[in-house]
Design a protein that fits this description.
286 residues, TIM Barrel, eight-stranded parallel beta barrel, 10 helices, alpha/beta, 13% strand, homodimer
Chain lengths: 286, 286
């Protein structure tokens, strides 16, 4: 088990790690280049972003699987609430349903959902979470019919204003249990939760089949940019092994997804170098 | 009670709000100017920073009290652990004891303690917290003999790497209860805890006389700088009234201390304008 986990087959690659996340960053590889490079190194799978699919979700999904890789995830629907979401929650639901359709075409194993910030003028995290739960609950049957699992991702509390009013695993477990649907679970990301000493305790409150993703990177001790300065595993101070153990003890047995947003470092490098570094770090650090 | 709380007498001013926190910021008022300006507006008290005292702690303390103001706090000892603390924990203890002596001279009602980040190479928040608890426990009797209360302040999780391995009220309550000393308690700061839906539940685990400070500002929805872009009450999205109610229900009856680090906005303004704005916001928002 320990040996298997230290091989590239224990991890999937989120394309954001190769700089695909923002225009102007990264080498601009095509999905096909990413697929070939990941297959050559024996990774378990790939998680894509919607902007990379351009109407080719079915084709890219089949291409990935025929290369021997899983499509572990898709990122992500538009924000559901908050200052950067549609003012009308019916519009938010529509955006979520449309992205579920794309995930179904891709046959992605899960769709990562980042919920959006606190509703403007509300001053209420609870009220914002209630609105999120309502939208997600209304989309859940549609997700199930497309065989898409919705992975609610609690973000670091620093993003509560503009990106995610869902900022703790505790609140995410509450929401998941409240919705109580087979296709609504969690994604746990090292970057967002590494500081939370209640992680194991909170995940115990969740059915063991409800962790739909585990994302890894590292937290740099002196983080220069709160969005785009994530560390590669081994370069920071998070107890990645300990966190992985907690998530596995809570029932997760899928691959760990490497997701490193790094405008000032890793996105400036050749994607082949980045992938080779990940292979090395998985063997030595993970 | 509600009326009293909405008067300037319900709040104290942390001098950092006037840009005293960093060289080159703010109007550079002397402690005497701050004292006179706060007394004229009927605030409850002032919290100072050690760098402002320059060996005049006794004099400044007496000057504050003779103007009818309380010295609600002093900020702060050197970091106890982490990348920006002395490598030797005996040195950290020495720094803490020396700052306690300054607080005693000032007759400050509490000394705010920011504990420092995760110990380098440790990858262990728990181990770092254990080291902090050990140092604080060893200083507690000295603090009591100087009539200084040590207010452990949990910082926002975004600071865990370099400023505070103590990042949740839960962990701070645990540490306080574990040390179990009359002069070791908490400071609760809106900026650091506003996102935490367990605040009331956690404070219930604390003896009702152990909240030594309540710091207020606001969290701006789109925060541009994670250290120096705090909002004035009313300009952000934190439920300040709700948080105050929680802290009061947990037993705190002292003044709320306004602490706004704002290099790009409030520190650029005339301190008189800043103080007038606080008077207005206390009446309308707080």
């Amino acid at each position: 088990m320990q040996n298997l986990s230290c091989a590239p087959s224990a991890v999937a690659i989120n394309t954001a790690t190769l700089g695909h996340i923002l225009d102007g960053h990264g080498a601009g590889w095509s999905p096909e280049q990413v697929i070939d490079a990941c297959a050559a190194r024996g990774f378990a799978g790939i998680a894509f972003w919607t902007r990379e699919l351009n109407g080719r979700a079915v084709e890219i999904g089949e291409r990935t699987r025929s290369a021997g890789l899983r499509v572990t995830g898709l990122c992500r629907p538009p924000y559901l609430v908050g200052p950067n979401a549609p003012a009308d929650q019916a519009e938010s639901l529509k955006g979520l349903l449309e992205t579920i359709d794309v995930a179904a075409e891709l046959k992605a194993e899960s769709l990562t959902v980042v919920v959006g910030g606190v509703i403007p003028e509300s001053r209420s995290i609870v009220g914002s979470l209630n609105a999120v739960a309502d939208i997600v609950a209304r989309a859940a049957d549609h997700a199930a019919s497309g065989n898409v699992r919705l992975a609610l991702e609690p973000l670091h509390p620093v993003y509560a204003g503009d990106r995610s009013c869902l900022v703790t695993v505790r609140d995410a477990v509450d929401m998941c249990n409240r919705i109580g649907h087979s296709h609504v679970g969690l994604a746990v990301d090292v970057y967002h939760v590494w500081w939370d000493l209640t992680l194991a305790e909170q995940l115990q409150r969740l059915p063991s089949d409800k962790i739909f993703g585990f994302h890894i990177c590292d937290w740099l001790a002196e983080t220069r940019d709160i969005l785009l300065d994530r560390g590669m595993m081994g370069d920071g101070i998070a107890d990645i092994r300990g966190l992985r153990k907690i998530v596995e003890n809570a029932g997760y047995s899928g691959p760990s997804e490497v997701e490193v947003f790094s405008a000032g470092n890793w996105w400036l490098r050749d994607p082949d170098e980045v992938l080779d570094t990940i292979v090395e770090r998985v063997r030595t650090v993970f």
